[in-house]
Amino acid sequence: MCYDKCARCIGHSLVWLAILCIVANILLYFPNGETRYASEDHLSRFVWFFSGIVGGGLLIFLPAFVFIGLEQGDCCGCCGHENCGKRCVMLSSVLVALIGIAGSGYCVIVAALGLAEGPICLDSSNQWNYTFANTEGQYLLDRSTWSQCVEPKHVVEWNASLFSILLALGGIEFILCLIQVINGVLGGICGYCCTHHQQYDC
Predict the structure, then answer these.
(1) What is the DSSP letter of 78?
(2) Angle at 160 between CA 159 and CA 163, to 5 degrees
(3) Residue 121: enclosing H or E segment and its boundaries?
(4) Peptide bond into 152 cis (omega under 30)
(5) pLDDT of res. 184
(6) pLDDT of amino acid 76
(7) Which sequence ranges are marked TM in the entry (predicted)?
(8) Closest CA to 176 of 110, 116, 107, 113
(9) Which residues on neighbouring strands pair with residue 130, listed in sequence order?
(10) What are phi and psi of 81, to 5 degrees?
(11) What are 95-124's pLDDT values in tens digits?
(12) Which residue stretches of the chain have pLDDT < 70?
């Protein structure tokens, strides 16, 4: 497979993953579809870190669109040397991939912290607090403890599901960007998939 076609495939995949990250992050603001918990500041603090919107979303769009556009790059005239344009473009894509790695890494870290701490909720003593903060994430394995959160209803399932989705999507984005780093280095060092005929046409 040509290096640019691999990058383009990665780019298209990243676009959809970024959109899903943004949607998942937005849903975290509306437990049970209600807006009052956000306005009353009764959401997990990690929701406000915008990990899915910024990290797994906006910071992923940049490398995604760059990767998609690699196939349309000029194959000649980089740095004054004929036929090395594609190599320069592939090497430069590595820098953009690092931005994607940073964004997806941020998404993964925040999602993991959000899962470990658990949601803020109204407990049986009528206090809003992080009921599962000291369980180090063990509450995820014991569904019987989830009833300690009285309000919002099913907030544990809501937070756990969406943060898990962000964790998984961010992890996939991280892997894809890492693959593009390797792909870009190989494309730049080993040469672009051009035949001798294409090189003479340039």
Answers:
(1) B
(2) 75
(3) strand 120-122
(4) yes
(5) 87
(6) 45
(7) 12-31, 46-68, 89-116, 160-179
(8) 107
(9) 120
(10) -110, 125
(11) 999 999 999 999 999 999 999 999 999 998
(12) 1, 71-87, 191-202
